[in-house]
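User: For documentation purposes, I need each entry recorded in a consistent format: the amino acid sequence on its own, followed directly by the corresponding structure tokens. There are two entries in this batch. Please keep commentary to a minimum and don't merge the entries.

Assistant: Recorded as requested. Entry 1:
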Amino acid sequence: MKSILLAIALSIFIATTGFAQQEKEYSVLDSINLVNGLPDNESIEKIYDEIDFQRACQAYIWGLPMMATDGFVQSFKKDLDGEWGDLIWVKTFADRSYGITANATTDYFFTWVNLNETGPIVIDVPAGLTAGFISDIWQRCPADLGVPGLNKGKGGKHLLTGPGQEAPEGLEDYRIVKTETNHNLILTRIIEPDPKKATELQNAFQIYPYADRKNPAKTKIVEVGGRVWKTTQPEGFQYWVGMARMINNEPVNERDRLIYAQLQPLGIEKGKEFNPNERQRKILEKAAIMGELMAKTNGFLTRLESAEYVEGSMWDYPLVVGPTQRGESYDHLDERAAWTYEALGISRGMTSTSVGVGSVYHGQYRSSDGKWLNGSKNYVLHIPKDVPAKNFWTVTVYDNKTRYLIQNGTGYADRGSRDDIVTNEDGTIDIYFGPKAPEGKEKNWIKTNPGDPWFAYFRLYGPLESYFDRSWVLSDIEDVK
């Protein structure tokens, strides 16, 4: 059944992007001419085109985590005027609207550093209720910070060292964190409920070069202030422009050398300027279209067994890749592609299976009848009583195309346990989705935009035992007839 749905979904994606005609013209097998079992000269060119097209499509999938990083770094510098180590404060719904599948109600603080330019970086985390992580360009997690980190919220200094950098000896007061890339994201959230204490923690979180440790400057906090920023991969041909740039700015991982070899005939090679000829450009433009179709299908209608929540459920686990992105006998590819196409960052706190610790994420893209969620229709999510969340739970709606919070004109895109919602007499809760609120249900309603596809995340913060033993199971989003 799932394979049939995959085929249907791909045909829909192809039709809606205008790729159908291009794909039909790019069918090669019927146009190959053989002479004594060997291709003629014209067919040889077609075969090489097909080789490079297929390799480019797979390179698109391979590059998804790095290219989201590229888009984010470029926006940090250009759109937010960020300098390495500046903390960007994401504090309003408008600010969060450009964080890919961002939590709609939590403040974030983030910065980027380029260790090749700054040298090793000190991250001084204050004692208290903070939670965050460090992420390299491949969205691997060298370390969690704050409560989920090794210091368990007790505070302390971390020294982040990059490729070719060694930590000085005798740094007993530091936790040494080694990263394999130059560019690294540092993200934290202040989860302290007391506003005064939260402000103190915010001001105490410090980031500075180790070389400035004797007299470090106060970390600059920059508010987004309504500016438009970006956390998704570049689109179209710009995807490859960004890939060439990142490959030149970062060291080669041993695991990726064969991919680099496949990129060379396409004009992308470390140490060389990216200047593709007309043939290469045409192939790369088509591969960007097909690559994104593959990414959407792999994420929104995944075939990964590890993504299954419970048998028959339309909810799945969008996050099925660990912080190291390594399986027992292979490195995660489709797993990391599924997550990094629609989300950002992979930390240990996000993948914890300990009761009452971390968080869990569920994604739903189709209603209970197997059809894509549609902004023109009305739906309901019936949440069983006694939601197993130690801290809080929330359901959030995202735009299918952008993977950002839905922009519906209401100023919110989620409902959860921290909102003033109505609970049924039996303890269950109904959340409604649609272009217009059902009468009397406004507090439990999330507005959708007519004609626009959407998907939902259901988050549990501090999941409890009844979640892990499946004595509590989340219902599907249902079409309201």
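Entry 2:
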Amino acid sequence: MASAASPVRGSYVITHVNVIPMTPANELLLNASVVVENHKITSINGPIPDGARAINGKGKWLIPGLMDMHVHVPTDGNFNTTYPTRTATVFTSTQDVMTPFVANGVTTVFELIAQPGHFGQRNEILRGDVVGPRMALAAFINGGDQGRVANTPSDGRQTVRIAKADGYEFIKVYSQLDVDTYKAIVDEARKLEMKVVGHIPNAFKGRASEAFVPNFSLVAHAEEFAKQSEQQSELDARTFARLAKENGTWLSPTLVVMVAMAEQARSLDRLRAMPTLQYVHPLLQNKWLTANRNFIGTTTGRIEGLEKTIEFNKRVVKAFKEAGVPMLAGTDAGSSGVVWGFSLHEELRLLVDAGLTTEEALAAATHLPAVWLGLDDKVGTIEPGKFADLVLLDANPLSDIGNTRKIAGVFVNGRWLDKREIDRMLSDLSRRNAAMSKYEWSRRAEL
């Protein structure tokens, strides 16, 4: 079982490394020495403490830890299925859930349908029992009759107050909210200093400008604008960008999830053959492959609609960039075929393909998420005094964004995981998932 026992905090110095600090000026530091003591960066090109463990960074590149601003982390009761803590002698654990993130250099995640179980996971990470990313938690509020719901303005305000009292930091609004309830939720969250992220409710169809009210701080998908646009034109994309700019609303495009949906609508063959599927719990593997809502009942028209939206999403990214609206890298990880950690590298590639520079894409996964989350005094850049969330790469990501995948090691809040340790953790997770899958199938055969 993967554990937090082997990677420990201490004093380290990364020598002869090229640093991409991701500060606003982002002046590269070549052949530098970066000192990490306990869980913080203490100096760059400064004194090296006695006994510091040296990590050879020659020819390598150091970036801040990556952040995924839209995830759904498995916990008990999540994904409409049971995510067991024990099946016979085969275990699954919080570490298993977090390993794909840290193996990919993802050191902060934003959970957008947070549940009580996520507080438990976050506490395990904070205690040091698990090596995992920092977790920001948003309470999910929707209209209708299931989950945390609000169907009147007064209920909306009360639901926000309860979420605040329960310890949630952010509010996520969803598609079935009516106009007045949505506005009351966003306003109450403003009063309680809770930023609001989420969907543009369906009730705003044809009147999207009314959804841009103060404290609606982040749109969770580029396709939210596709739903509001009949023609999905460049003019519409520019109009949405202007509305967002005027309201101070940022965007997390989550391009990768729409691409995954279109691929699965055509066929599940690519999903079935994904190398990263081995790191997904077998219950979720089974759900993705046998009850895949993207594939079941698919039609040519639906596939064409998804492909049209993918193209419009690129126009949205381009328009938001031109308007100067900040964009954050998020993936909707946990959706079918969108594997935690691995998906963020694909999102960065898609953002560059849509028109961002490699530096802008990196900012969308480092400095800018830290600013939006209010953590920029702690993480998001490589500076003395910041927490040691760092990714050591074998090649320069500013030359090719695909180089973010070439990970030589990761610091997670001061804990060093080298490539050998990362490979061991992934191998262990794959082996345990395979064993659990084998057990589940044998158990079903006995029934």
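Summary note for entry 2:
Residues 1-6, 77-91 have pLDDT under 50 and may be disordered.
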